[in-house]
């Protein structure tokens, strides 16, 4: 039996998320089971999964048996290009091909590498996520209060996130708003997928993307896509269902043309989706903050060659 006192770094966190961090490696189902059974106590009383913890709360954690796991390699220390940083948050320019966190066959990601490179940091948590194949702006909170405030902004759609996406073909000039619900599902391959759905479909979630054409070439259209909702694979599926998949997308793209592009003289072997602009209110001051990340060199070269 362990008793843990909630400190500033965990204040405001839900009980389930607090336990998942304290009991690394324990399956989620087991964590929720011990909460429902009343084995976890907050200040000697029963608590629910969504109970918000406060500084000084005492959490009693029952003994749990960790499953035997293969030893994973330790994350190497790594820093990433910093776009904005103060004592509350960090905004970096994530390269393509790097996961934001470990899991699902990935030993470690951005957050583990950052924690290793900053051993004195008391708190580092992802505010949001980017697909492994996507490059660009990623927010990391350095305080619990910043994490909660920024995630609230994302939930209330009070942030602006704009992506540069290169798609195959000539994007229709009139298609400026995509309002197509999306459904997550697990395919026969065991992978997580997303497909367009219908509004009356049980698992469908409304998803809105605003599209603006920035450049046209004989092969491609360069788009600015601003998302009003933050669904999994939203931009990738929205553009694909409109008939113009993202260049280099390994999941929803035109596999034959992607292969030709990677093997041909252009040697472009990544997905052309880049989180280029991020607008939000500073979690402490309330001031408007705009961060921008330039297109990666490989993307600039492809645009120049394709024009």
CATH C-level of the largest domain: Alpha Beta
The third-level CATH topology of the largest domain is: Pseudouridine synthase
Shape: globular
What is the assembly state of the chains in this entry?
single chain
Number of domains: 3
- The poorly predicted ranges are none
Number of strands: 16
Structural class: alpha+beta
CATH H-tier superfamily of the largest domain? Pseudouridine synthase
Radius of gyration, CA atoms, in whole angstroms = 21 Å
The helicity comes to: 10-25%
Distance between the termini: 65 Å
The portion of residues forming beta strands comes to 25-35%
Instruction: Please write the string of helix (H) and strand (E) elements.
Output: EHHEEEEEHEEHEEEEEEHHEEH
Largest sheet: 10 strands, mixed
Mean pLDDT: 91
Count, helices: 7
Gross CATH architecture of the largest domain:
2-Layer Sandwich
What does the secondary structure layout of this molecule look like, with pairings?
Elements: E1 2-5, H1 15-22, H2 28-36, E2 41-42, E3 45-46, E4 58-61, E5 82-85, E6 89-94, H3 110-117, E7 125-126, E8 135-141, H4 144-155, E9 160-168, E10 177-179, E11 182-186, E12 192-196, E13 208-216, E14 220-227, H5 234-241, H6 255-263, E15 273-281, E16 288-292, H7 297-306
Parallel strand pairs: 8-15
Antiparallel strand pairs: 1-4, 2-3, 2-4, 5-6, 6-8, 7-8, 9-14, 9-15, 10-13, 11-12, 13-14, 15-16
């Amino acid at each position: 039996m362990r008793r843990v006192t909630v400190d500033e770094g965990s204040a405001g966190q839900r009980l389930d998320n607090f336990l998942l961090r304290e009991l690394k490696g324990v399956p989620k189902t087991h964590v929720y089971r011990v909460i429902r059974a009343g084995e976890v106590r907050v200040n000697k009383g029963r608590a629910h999964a969504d109970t918000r913890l406060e500084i000084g709360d005492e959490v009693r954690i029952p003994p749990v048996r960790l499953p035997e796991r293969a030893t994973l390699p330790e994350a190497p220390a790594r820093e990433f290009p910093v776009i904005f940083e103060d004592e509350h948050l960090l905004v970096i320019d994530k390269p393509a091909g790097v996961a934001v966190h470990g899991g699902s066959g990935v030993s470690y990601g951005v957050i583990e590498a950052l924690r290793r490179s900053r051993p004195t940091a008391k708190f580092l948590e992802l505010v949001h996520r980017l697909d492994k194949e996507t490059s660009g702006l990623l927010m990391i909170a350095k305080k619990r209060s910043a994490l909660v405030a920024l995630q609230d902004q994302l939930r209330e759609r009070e942030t602006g996130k704009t992506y540069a996406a290169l798609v195959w073909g000539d994007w229709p000039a009139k298609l400026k708003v995509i309002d197509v619900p999306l459904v997550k599902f697990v395919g026969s391959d065991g992978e997580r997928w997303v497909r367009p759905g219908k509004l009356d479909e049980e698992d469908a979630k409304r998803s809105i993307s605003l599209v603006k054409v920035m450049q046209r070439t004989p092969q491609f259209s360069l788009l600015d896509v601003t998302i009003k909702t933050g669904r999994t694979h939203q931009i990738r599926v929205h553009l694909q269902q409109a008939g113009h998949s993202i260049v280099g997308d390994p999941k929803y793209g035109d596999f034959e043309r992607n292969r030709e592009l990677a093997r041909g003289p252009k040697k472009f072997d990544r997905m052309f989706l880049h989180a280029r602009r991020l607008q939000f209110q500073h979690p402490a001051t309330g001031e408007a903050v705009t961060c921008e990340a330039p297109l990666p060199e490989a993307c600039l070269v492809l645009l120049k060659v394709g024009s």
